[in-house]
Structure formats: C-alpha cells, structure tokens
Amino acid sequence: MNIAVIDYQGGNVQSVLFALERLGVTNAVLTSDPDAIRGADRVLFPGEGEASSAMRALRAAGLDRVLPTLTQPFLGICLGMQLLGRHSQEGPAGGTELLGMLPFDVVRFTPPDAAHKVPHMGWNNLHDLQTPLFAGLGGVGDTEAVALPTAADYVYFVHSYYAPVGDYTIAQASYPAGVPFSAGVRHRNFYGVQFHVEKSGPVGEQILHNFLTGDLG
Amino acid sequence: MLTKRLIACLDVQNGRTVKGTNFVNLRDAGDPVALAARYAQEGIDELVLLDITATVEKRRTLIELVRNVAREVNIPFTVGGGIGAVADVEALLLSGADKVSLNSSVLREPGLIDELARRFGSQAIVVAVDARQTNDAAQGPADEAWEVFTHGGRHPVGREAVAWCREAAERGAGELLLTSMSHDGTRDGYALGFTRAVAAGVGVPVIASGGAGAAPHFRDVLLPGGADAALAASVFHFGDLSVAGLKSYLLAEGVAMRPAV
C-alpha cells in the first residue's frame, strides 16, 4: 500500500511518520508532489501552527487545487482537519479562507470562566462516534449513547479553534463539559480528526490502523 | 470531559537519565527512551525531557534523543533545558518533540516568545518559570510574594512571578510550567498559593512542579490549586507512587483523569 504524508512545512510531520512506523508502515512517503499524492492509496494531511500561514504554504505548493480532487481515503489531522473547512477565525484581520472541502467554519473557543483555558490541551474523551474510522472504540455501532468513559475513549487534543457540530461530524468531544465540538469530520473520502491521532496512545493507534485498513469509501 | 494530566519529568545528561530509578524489569534505567516508553505504557499522560547537559555536543545528542523518544513513544512530550535559539526550537520540533520549554532565554529576551509562537504556534511553546517565595506570608496565601529565579533558584531576576507568567501568556506561550524552588525537593507538597494565583489569573494551561511526595499532594494542586497538570520526577522514578495507583486514587478523589490502561 502506498501512503503519502503531505509535506507543506505545516508542522510536526515526523511524529506522523513515526506513528506509521509503529504500525509497521515503513514506506510512507513525505511529499508535496501532486502526482505522488494522487497515486497514493491513503493520504495523511497533518497540520500544526497557524491557519493563514498554512494556507499560504498550501497555495504556494499548488496543493489547494490538488487536494479537493483526490478520491482515495484522506485524513486531515488537527490543523489539517480545520483546513478542510470554509473559513477560520484564525489569521490576520477577518480570518482565513480555507480549502472549502467541508461545510464548516472554524471558530475560537470562548471559555465561560478562568477555569477553562485556551488552548484546549490534554486528554479528552470521544463520544457519538460514527464510521469504521472508529471501529473498536466505545460506542461505534451502538444505538445507546456512549456510557461511562473508559481508557479507550481518550485522545490528546491541543487547539484553540474548533469546528462546530454538524451533519459532517463523525465524532464529538466536549469543552467545556457538556458543550460538544467536532472531534472528527467526514465528507465522502475526506476524513479529519481534531485530536493528535499520532500522539494518542493505543487509542490513536487503533484509529490510524482503521484508517489504513478500513473500508472508508 | 477534559482531564487533568500527570507528567513525568526525566532529567537527561549526555543522552542518559541522571537520577537513579528503581524500576524493576527495566533493562537499562539510564536509557531515557526505555524509561519514557515504560511510563507511556503505564498510563502517564505526558513526558518532559529536561536536558542538563552543558557541552557543545549538547544539541546533536539531544536531537538524536528526541528522535528516538518520538519513534518509540505514542504520547506527547516536551523538551527543555538551555534552549535559546530559534534554530534549536525548529530542530527539536522537526525531530518529533511536541513542545519546547524555555526559561532563561525568554527572561533575557521576552520578544523571543512572540517570535516562536508566531512561527511554530503557541501549542508548541511552554514557558517554564522557576519561582521562590520571598516573604513569610504571615497573613496567608493572599500575601505570598513570589519572584522569578534562575540558576536552580540562586539568582533572582527582579521580576514578580505572577506578572511574568501573565506577560509570557500574552506574548504567546501556550502553557506555563511553574516550579516552586521553595518546595522543589521537599516532598512536602506543591506550592498551592502560587499555583492558584497563576491558574486563576492567566488564561493558558498551567503545569505545577516541585514538592510532590505523596498522592494527596497531586489532589491538592489539581483541585484547590487549580493546576491543569502536575509534574513529578522522583516519586515516580523511585517507585513511591505508581502511575496506575495514583490515577485510581485521584479518580476516587474526584479528579478528572484519563484512567490508566
């Protein structure tokens, strides 16, 4: 299987490559070449840092035109997920126009009190999981709401902006407690996760494994 | 819900862990990679590698170590210790560190925080603040005076600690790592008043460090102290507390925790 990790100077790609290695994938290619990306069986799109600089780097590499045309399973991670939306509040005056592949607008957390910090940083539990991307985790396939949190439900988040819950949401987390946001999104072959799947312990490894092997059509 | 974090700190010199450990079943307790992997497996939420090497070889050794830890460990980790140049930060992040922690360099040049946050994002920039209580606070915690110190608590830099924390956050630090030099090594508990003052007055997550000796100390700094994370070294390294046992205790005490696997 050919796996492409998109390289656009968008942050901590090394951690994603190492996470793939731990799953036995040693031939993943770090690339910004449109043909290599189009030819891959799976495409990972990491992202860290700030939205407007990331969009500038994507445009400079011509990737803003390539990514929406892809048809294989595609996974945006953290900022890589947010960039799939239409617009972000992050960025100089007025925010940043994003790739527009999913119909959400990214907004900043506005905590109600000093106990809730921004960034939302740390381990939080997923709920309302859908699609085979989350196979093997609590709640998938169940009609009941996810029960008490277990170790299996927790993943690592670091972000100050978020995508609200919508039709495209395939996983939720809550911050503050009781206020859900999109922890996972999907449109067709385009998936995204807000958390750092590559740094989320055994749960993250399960989700990455599902992405590499699952029927995500 | 978002949980509080437990963080183990590994002191590293020339690529080796320097404080002894009594982990049984660990082939080489001086190998930071093996130790980091062991903690991750036990359910620690995050790791800090604190490099205390003071040689010109430092950077290369540290970057190699960071790569090896990132290769083996599937949880986030921060690297700190004498980091000052933008190029060092970039190299460490590109090698797989999730965050870097800065201390003396940003006290000398506060604008470095702004520059690093712009370039790498606030999520990657931790500002470490070593502070010492400089009065006896006869009237209680509200009267405590805390000042920033460097060089292991020996050199005062003439800054009030809570104000410096606020400035660091405003300049773009994504997290603050507070160490009370008045409590570090005492095992009598964390600096609750100082931690609370920063946690309540600054909008970014706060890691408390210095003074952990027993399980109730963690409860106190995470609940009344208001810290988002508690860091410890020797209580974990010497096996006084197991990660799983401490997490069970904290969950039972009503602290939101990711359960140990």
From TrEMBL, chain A:
<dbReference type="Pfam" id="PF00117">
    <property type="entry name" value="GATase"/>
</dbReference>
<keyword id="KW-0368">Histidine biosynthesis</keyword>
<dbReference type="GO" id="GO:0016829">
    <property type="term" value="F:lyase activity"/>
</dbReference>
<dbReference type="GO" id="GO:0004359">
    <property type="term" value="F:glutaminase activity"/>
</dbReference>
<dbReference type="InterPro" id="IPR010139">
    <property type="entry name" value="Imidazole-glycPsynth_HisH"/>
</dbReference>
<feature type="active site" description="Nucleophile">
    <location>
        <position position="78"/>
    </location>
</feature>
<keyword id="KW-0028">Amino-acid biosynthesis</keyword>
<dbReference type="InterPro" id="IPR029062">
    <property type="entry name" value="Class_I_gatase-like"/>
</dbReference>
<dbReference type="GO" id="GO:0005737">
    <property type="term" value="C:cytoplasm"/>
</dbReference>
<protein>
    <recommendedName>
        <fullName>Imidazole glycerol phosphate synthase subunit HisH</fullName>
        <ecNumber>4.3.2.10</ecNumber>
        <ecNumber>3.5.1.2</ecNumber>
    </recommendedName>
</protein>
<keyword id="KW-0963">Cytoplasm</keyword>
<dbReference type="InterPro" id="IPR017926">
    <property type="entry name" value="GATASE"/>
</dbReference>
<keyword id="KW-0378">Hydrolase</keyword>
<feature type="domain" description="Glutamine amidotransferase">
    <location>
        <begin position="5"/>
        <end position="212"/>
    </location>
</feature>
<comment type="subunit">
    <text>Heterodimer of HisH and HisF.</text>
</comment>
<dbReference type="GO" id="GO:0000107">
    <property type="term" value="F:imidazoleglycerol-phosphate synthase activity"/>
</dbReference>
<dbReference type="GO" id="GO:0000105">
    <property type="term" value="P:L-histidine biosynthetic process"/>
</dbReference>
<keyword id="KW-0456">Lyase</keyword>
<keyword id="KW-0315">Glutamine amidotransferase</keyword>
<feature type="active site">
    <location>
        <position position="198"/>
    </location>
</feature>
<comment type="function">
    <text>IGPS catalyzes the conversion of PRFAR and glutamine to IGP, AICAR and glutamate. The HisH subunit catalyzes the hydrolysis of glutamine to glutamate and ammonia as part of the synthesis of IGP and AICAR. The resulting ammonia molecule is channeled to the active site of HisF.</text>
</comment>
<comment type="pathway">
    <text>Amino-acid biosynthesis; L-histidine biosynthesis; L-histidine from 5-phospho-alpha-D-ribose 1-diphosphate: step 5/9.</text>
</comment>
From TrEMBL, chain B:
<keyword id="KW-0456">Lyase</keyword>
<dbReference type="InterPro" id="IPR013785">
    <property type="entry name" value="Aldolase_TIM"/>
</dbReference>
<dbReference type="GO" id="GO:0000105">
    <property type="term" value="P:L-histidine biosynthetic process"/>
</dbReference>
<dbReference type="InterPro" id="IPR004651">
    <property type="entry name" value="HisF"/>
</dbReference>
<comment type="function">
    <text>IGPS catalyzes the conversion of PRFAR and glutamine to IGP, AICAR and glutamate. The HisF subunit catalyzes the cyclization activity that produces IGP and AICAR from PRFAR using the ammonia provided by the HisH subunit.</text>
</comment>
<comment type="similarity">
    <text>Belongs to the HisA/HisF family.</text>
</comment>
<dbReference type="InterPro" id="IPR006062">
    <property type="entry name" value="His_biosynth"/>
</dbReference>
<dbReference type="GO" id="GO:0000107">
    <property type="term" value="F:imidazoleglycerol-phosphate synthase activity"/>
</dbReference>
<dbReference type="Pfam" id="PF00977">
    <property type="entry name" value="His_biosynth"/>
</dbReference>
<protein>
    <recommendedName>
        <fullName>Imidazole glycerol phosphate synthase subunit HisF</fullName>
        <ecNumber>4.3.2.10</ecNumber>
    </recommendedName>
</protein>
<dbReference type="GO" id="GO:0016829">
    <property type="term" value="F:lyase activity"/>
</dbReference>
<comment type="pathway">
    <text>Amino-acid biosynthesis; L-histidine biosynthesis; L-histidine from 5-phospho-alpha-D-ribose 1-diphosphate: step 5/9.</text>
</comment>
<dbReference type="InterPro" id="IPR050064">
    <property type="entry name" value="IGPS_HisA/HisF"/>
</dbReference>
<feature type="active site">
    <location>
        <position position="11"/>
    </location>
</feature>
<feature type="active site">
    <location>
        <position position="130"/>
    </location>
</feature>
<keyword id="KW-0368">Histidine biosynthesis</keyword>
<dbReference type="InterPro" id="IPR011060">
    <property type="entry name" value="RibuloseP-bd_barrel"/>
</dbReference>
<keyword id="KW-0963">Cytoplasm</keyword>
<dbReference type="GO" id="GO:0005737">
    <property type="term" value="C:cytoplasm"/>
</dbReference>
<keyword id="KW-0028">Amino-acid biosynthesis</keyword>
<comment type="subunit">
    <text>Heterodimer of HisH and HisF.</text>
</comment>
